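Incident log, support desk, overnight shift.

02:14 A customer reports that sequence design results differ from what the structure should imply. Their input is reproduced verbatim below. On-call engineer (initials T.W.) acknowledged and began investigating.
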């Protein structure tokens, strides 16, 4: 730093101690570490932000996911407030610009965690999708009954008949509430007319929305980015430090020899690429990077929408078709 006439901001500097998770650390090892720059001590931290990604000393990425979840939920609130002021043709651009850009930033670094750790991000993503592309009329109909809710028995279907188990959106009060209104009685509505039923608490399934709008879930965004970044590194041989981590198989030149199983990028990139070739029945080299991206996206989207039902399954996030 001195040779290149560069200055270190000591106030912004810190150090972090990484230790093997399966091995007990030596007693007082962390306390014996006293790092200084020009006589000024540097503070030890357990997590810090580096280039927009929060790194913790366990490399669990939990702090980053928690921080990102709060940011995405805040973005959902902003999108909800400006949604009605913009034309519907711009909704998809808003999603990619304001939401997915934050969701996919640095995802090849921290996205290799388990599906359970990604569930808060997936919930925020589904919330944003419902706000932008969901059926807003059906949602508002839940609040158009006599109790400003969708109760169990207080319902009249479109034909004017009282129905207790109908799933059709209802917008009229029941006969009891109508008679109370006609007489001008201001007493509270009957308890049975105020109970929130399953229809009120039910949420719109997001799987058909993801399919119609051709959107990827957070799990599949990671798989897509991880494979494409791997192929960029292998084809361009840059950066050389990353290129040296990938070793091609001597038996099949289109496959990689996977290193020790872990959540890091070197293993995930090689493993996902091999699985993509095996499960998609690809033969030989696929070609340019553009053709790889188009074929990979098509394969991931097919797997994300199978089988044809409204429920999400694990095979939507870990298979290729």
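02:41 Re-run completed on a clean worker. Output:
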């Amino acid at each position: 730093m001195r040779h290149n006439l560069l200055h270190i901001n000591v106030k912004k500097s810190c150090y972090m101690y990484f230790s093997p998770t399966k091995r007990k650390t030596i007693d007082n090892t962390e306390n014996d570490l006293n790092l200084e720059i020009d006589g000024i001590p540097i503070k030890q931290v357990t997590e810090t932000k580096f280039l927009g990604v929060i790194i913790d000393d366990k490399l669990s990425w939990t702090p980053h996911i928690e921080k990102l979840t709060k940011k995405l939920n805040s973005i959902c609130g902003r999108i909800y407030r400006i949604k009605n002021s913009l034309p519907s043709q711009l909704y998809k651009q808003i999603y990619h610009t304001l939401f997915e850009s934050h969701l996919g930033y640095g995802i090849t670094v921290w996205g290799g965690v388990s599906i359970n750790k990604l569930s808060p991000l997936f919930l925020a993503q589904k919330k944003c999708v419902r706000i932008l592309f969901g059926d807003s009329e059906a949602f508002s109909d839940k609040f158009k009954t006599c109790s400003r809710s969708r109760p169990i028995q207080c319902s009249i279907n479109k034909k004017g008949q009282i129905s207790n188990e109908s799933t059709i959106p209802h917008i009229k009060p029941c006969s009891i509430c109508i008679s109370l209104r006609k007489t001008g009685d201001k007493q509270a509505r009957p308890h049975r007319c105020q109970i929130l039923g399953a229809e009120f608490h039910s949420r719109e399934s997001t799987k058909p929305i993801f399919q119609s709008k051709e959107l990827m879930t957070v799990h599949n965004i990671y798989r897509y980015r991880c494979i494409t970044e791997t192929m960029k590194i292998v084809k361009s041989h840059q950066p050389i430090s990353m290129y040296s981590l990938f070793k091609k198989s001597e038996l099949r030149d289109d496959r990689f020899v996977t290193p020790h199983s872990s959540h890091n990028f070197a293993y995930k990139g090689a493993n996902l690429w091999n699985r993509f070739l095996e499960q998609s029945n690809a033969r030989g080299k696929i070609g340019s990077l553009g053709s790889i991206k188009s074929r990979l996206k098509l394969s991931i989207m097919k797997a994300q929408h199978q089988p044809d039902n409204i429920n999400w399954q694990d095979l939507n996030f870990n298979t290729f078709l």
